[in-house]
Amino acid sequence: MIAGCPSARIDVDDMDESLERCVKSLEENTEDVRDEARRALLTICRNVLRSPSNYRSRELRLDDEVVVEKLLPAVGALECLFDVGYVEDGERIFLPQNVSLLKIQSLSRMLCTATGSPITDDIDKRSTAQKAFFDKIVGHFRGVMHYEDPNLQRKAKSVVPVGRLEIATMTKMRDLQKSLKLDNAEAAASSQFEGELIAKDLFLVELLRWFKHEFFEWVNSPKCPTCSTECTYEDAIQSSDPHCSRIELHRCQKCNIVVEFPRYTHPEPLLTLRRGRCGEWADVFTLLCRSLGYDARFICDETDHVWTEIWSASNKRWVHVDPCENVIDKPLMYERGWQKKLTYVIAYSRDEVQDVTWRYTRDQEAVMKRRKACAEQTLMHLLESLSHQRQSSAGYSRARREYIVKRKLLELADMLYIPNSQDKESDEETYEGRTSGSVMWRLARGEITPQVDTEKNYIWDISKYGETFELQYNIVKDQYRVTRDASTVLEEKSGWLEGMNATEGGIFRKAENDWKMVYLARSPQAKRGRVKWTLEVANSASRLEEFSLRAKSEVFQGATVSWEIEAVFDDRTVVIAVPDCGNFRTEEVRGAVRLNVIVTLSGGQGELAWQHAQLFRQSLNDTEEPSMLISVRRSPLCSRSS
User: What is the pLDDT of residues 115-129, one digit of tens each?
Assistant: First the structure.
């Protein structure tokens, strides 16, 4: 046991101390969640003990309702099963045949002892569950008002690099206007007001990318301050800080020290700590959005996830924004991509509390069967009463109230789903994104691509950086870096298109959030896509000596990703084939003044042929590994051999 954390002993052998801690951690849950988990665990134990040789009694699929609705929501529930010997293989958890049943017996005994009486499945907990559910809704609705604290908003806004994000927004907006041929006459015909609305949407894209890749950090378990090894969760204790729900205790298996991980429910301390899990991520991101003038609200999925929604004035609808995943406007991602069995998805804002489950599902019948916490009419009455109370409070203007009514009508219409009348895409495309919304907005999210070629005409002047020029590109961060010795950063540039000289075939950046991968691909309408980087020695007293390349790519169904180097000399141009982009080096560029690095994506089969040639395919978790590394060595003209 951890020193300073005494607990009442359950009469078990010393070998069951770790199991005792897991059972005790169930107490950290609300009463109804705890009791549901206990009943489910006890049923599992009894099934195994009743039929120990039956493999079906020893396994549970991870998408089983018992796991999704009763075990996953409860702190400590799955830990109990893992402690008695259950293992996971990616799709299920199961108890191997060679595992002793002694711990299963101990777990069954502890669960009964903890309640003071045997737990039976026929106990009616509906009233208790409803009260806990309603208490949670009321608590969240009160909690979102801390986003409206002017002092907290000023503090939040101060951590955002607004100027840098505005520059990136304007650059992207000009590129999109050029791609869609909205410049000149058409652009002049567009009102300044509409341009400002679109810019606000694009700024949100930049804000989300910065938040995910530069500001906030995901923590499963904190690292040991002594040896930097990731610790293992062991227990949780209550906190005296009203802004902290509990303090998790994680133990380093090497140093045997305990590291505390406070779970804050208020965003202010997180502006400094900048780490957490989905609750902390959504809490801070929603605050930042409010501090920057967005109508933002906190979304709570009762099957254990949270995110943000933003009201897009240009699209006149609420837009789903998941800061943990760097995903915008893909509400079906959870049901179709994550295979979540949704029940209640509730939105909390300064104006109202709203049931928005229907934006996130296309299987209403199945969802309704799982909604057992209360009667639908009772829930509706509670939400309407809370919203009316907020909108009737002192200082709430009549104009704002009328605006919210109109906005709610638009929202209800937006959540209507008529089968076979919309969403003509495949299952993957449906949960990856929508087809509604402005073209500029969809383009910003990478859902569609312009079919026109893009001439960026950007040239990297390699003579500015010394004798060796090192260029890195990371597709996860979507960022170029010019480095020295692969570590010292000399220059940074955000956006893959910003370092390009030219592209063909509607090349765009594709993120597969279900597979956690990202890559560049060509437009679905293009048989071939091409990108070109240009490197030049602007100093006439210098020439190139050597070129090397390391880059990632992946092909499927007979597709190809081919590389070549055009070396431009004073009197000729030489094309150099690159047989292996994973490790290529050549001195054939010696004496050249310019290099064009060209990649062609082609081939593939069927309607998804465009997706079979993937440039820079990389895991979304590989935030630091370069997707491409180009190194060019040059020398003064006088040192060249004649």
Answer: 654 444 433 445 677
